[in-house]
Amino acid sequence: MVLIAGIDEAGRGPVIGPLVIAITVIEEDNEGKLREIGVRDSKLLSPKQREAMFGPVSKLCKHEIIIIEPKEIDAAVESESSNLNWLEADKAVILINNLRPDIAFIDCPSNNIQAYTEYIRERLDYKPKLVVEHKADVTYPIVSAASILAKVTRDTQIDRLKQRHVVNFGSGYPADPLTQEFLKEHWKEYSFFRKSWAAWKNAANAKKQKSLGEF
User: What domains sit in the chain, N to C, each tagged with a CATH number?
Assistant: First the structure.
């Protein structure tokens, strides 16, 4: 019995909200069941399709999800010894060590696949086979399954933030005009902003410059 795992993330780019990383694990002989229920990269599915698939994927696969809040993201991005890629790799290590697959397929966020692979391998407490690739979420159904769990979890977290604070900041991505407008008006008010992001810094600096200009 060979256990295979897929690891993927959702919410790497937004200036608002958490980054979510998920692992899914299934017996290699059962991977075809993921294809049968229509599993593919979450970006190729509509939100309703992803939500409908969350339950079936969760039942078919052992899984674990890590939610990384903006404060931890900022600490990694502004650290001299870490960055966003290494933060993701550290979480991948935790997930692999916890669920102990024989083979782990990982969607690689780094341009340097070899360095990313070695970073993870050195920190694991056992020796699974690692298959680290760009667009692994498109290539391998088990990684597509992880991408669905990560994306639905991230979307749920964003909806909860909007409801809890009674606000609408759009998608949370810097290119979204609604997000830009919200950032411009409220950059100082909320803990869900990633303050290490250029979009947040630009909004904060613009306000500070304006305040100075008023003297």
Answer: 3-164 (3.30.420.10), 171-213 (no CATH)
